[in-house]
Protein 1
Amino acid sequence: MTPKGFSFSAINAGVKAPGTARLDLALIFCDKDAVASGVFTLNKVKAAPVLIGMELVKKGSLRAILANSGNANACTGSGGTDDARALMEETARTLGIHRDEVAPLSTGVIGVKMPVGRMLEKIPELAAGLGGDPAPFAKAIMTTDTFPKVVTRTAGAATVLGIAKGAGMIAPDMATTLAVVLTDAVISKQDLDNIVKTSIESTFNAITIDGDMSTNDTLLALSTGYVTVNTNEISRAVHEVIRELAIMLVKDGEGATKIVEITVTGAGTDAEAKKAAMAVANSLLVKTALFGADPNWGRIMAAVGYSDIPIDPDTIDITVSGYRVVTSGKEAEGFSEDMLHKKLVEKEIAIGIDLKGGSGRFTAFTSDLSYDYVKINSEYRT
């Protein structure tokens, strides 16, 4: 099921290199002006499409999204901006809309000039292939992803569709990904902005695979406004879609074999709980222990300790998938390394950390760190 008013297309344009046989140039088209919202990377090094997109969403409406994989169009100077605008211009001309109604999205290798000539030639064919299936778009934006990420929810008679890519360079804020959230609900620009910004705090901004923030992070939300529905219902559906996409990103983490939920409670504030949870989630020693199912709980304690929030080490309790590991800052009575090892062998692991210092709470999601992560990222450009 797709929201009313949206159509999709994808083709091969040899973006990364001529002759690559994969979908890598994709288009979403709205049959009317769509209310638009967006959130973008906080990295001070921003790709050309991010800089352009940040300006476009201020206007509040869009008609199309042009996305590519294989090239990030980042660290390409003013020429990169010119290239993005040339692609926007051709897309707009082909669709019969204005250039600034086309938002660009790019993902791939940083610092390489876009093959604009090859891409421009393909845009008429891309536009001609528009149809109701979002699957080709989802496949075309993949890089090291192992599966396309598409989620739908209903809100009354309205539909919310989410599409995302991401498997590496996943860290806040906002988590490294390209994502679009589309709905046919009637919603104001202000309400859509508020829903997206609220939703990402406990979803895209609560996940990490490797602690690296990309230059291209973008989430665009569009609504064609065909269906009248309660705003609370849309808020719920959008949040559910974004949350499921975020968890999909962690499950598909480069080389990942496990997904790990880390919940910190008892912090002074939610912000402090987040700092502690993300310190554990980003710890390479914790992540390698998770991969090897090594019952080295001291690494979790150490990460909480350097998270730079107020704690009393002698009050901390830790559980792993319900098994008590630490009580009052010390190894729990009756602790068994064999039992903890068995918990850590599982593909889904829940770590609970109670600081007993307040009402602050936050849940982060991460993956383990495997040999394959090193292999994938040592060969990314070659």
Protein 2
Amino acid sequence: MTNFSDNFPLGDRNTFGLDATARYWAEFRTTGELRDIILACRERHLPWYVLSGGSNLILTGNFPGVVIHPAAAEITLPEATLVRAEAAVVWDELVAWTVERGLGGLENLSLIPGLAGAAPVQNIGAYGAEAKDTIETVEYFDTETFDTVRIKGADCAFGYRDSIFKGALKGRAIVTAVEFRLVPEDTPGGGGYTYNIGYGDLHDRVEALGGPTLDHIRRAVIAIREAKLPDPAVTGNAGSFFKNPVIPAAQAERLREAYPEMPGYPSADGETVKVPAAWLIDRAGWKGFRCGTVGVHPKQALVLINLGGATAQEILNLARRIIADVERKFGIALSMEVNVL
């Protein structure tokens, strides 16, 4: 098949560094190329899977079909405050591009691994910001109709690490580009840009750099992440392995009677509280845990790590042990943020 690579190794295509092989690998730059790939899959009855940056993935074995990878990586400015990124743009390079041009909205999401095309699928977020806050339009290829569709961000059913692309459009939509509506740091007419530095220790880091600016926020976020998170090039990992659980406010109050130091972030209506999964895992005694080829990062309990030669099953077994222990001790069920293939 044209442009298909046989028996393609995926070991360096996932940040956990898990060994696996795809029966076929195919890259696309245009919707025409993507159409041809999907047609070939249908004609040969081959399953397909879109692999972006591989930073949120556990490969449980060889893939028997076609792994599809976006290759178009251009950033453009259709309007003064509208940034368009093709699916293969490296996410952090996009953030740097916007900060350098004084466009605010993505700076809190600095150094998140992966590609731009995955941002709306996962609704990536960090330090009090989420991709949904700035996404105006998502462009995707419909693998059933072969149409290129533009959907407004407001219609993407964004939730906490969730979107329509993980729900109604899962297995049907392949994101080809994303458009972000940003705000100039030096907004004309006064008032300026509203910086978001109230999450965790970000405020103190930014103040130490001289106060809030897009550049200072980006530098502070990068410093925090580099201090807490392992480099996948050195230690295999998928970043945040678990979602932060959202529990009823009444349950949070009961837990605080036993654990008054437990952090939590109430919802706008006050009915629920988001509890940091890292705190729960740390308090349960798992931070820094090691068992053979897998472990929990000693500086960030939310990150499971491949200590060398780990299998997907070993990683998942550790995750299940942590989930069971946290539920037993706190009555909170953790859920995995990573995708399992």
Protein 3
Amino acid sequence: MIKILLVLLFIGAVISLFSGLVFLVKDDSQSFRLINSLYLRVAFCIAILALLGWGFYSGELGSQAPWLQPH
């Protein structure tokens, strides 16, 4: 469940990134859509970090890195 949420949040952050690029190129200087896109992207990334932290803390996510395995 957490992995699906992480993927959806990541997709939302990427969509927000590219919509911000479109707003940067096409909008006039009085529009706030670029700033709103930035706020949304930051919110997505904060949610991703919080969900990653919760996933590792609760044990639902783990690492396969050999240097993190117990001896």
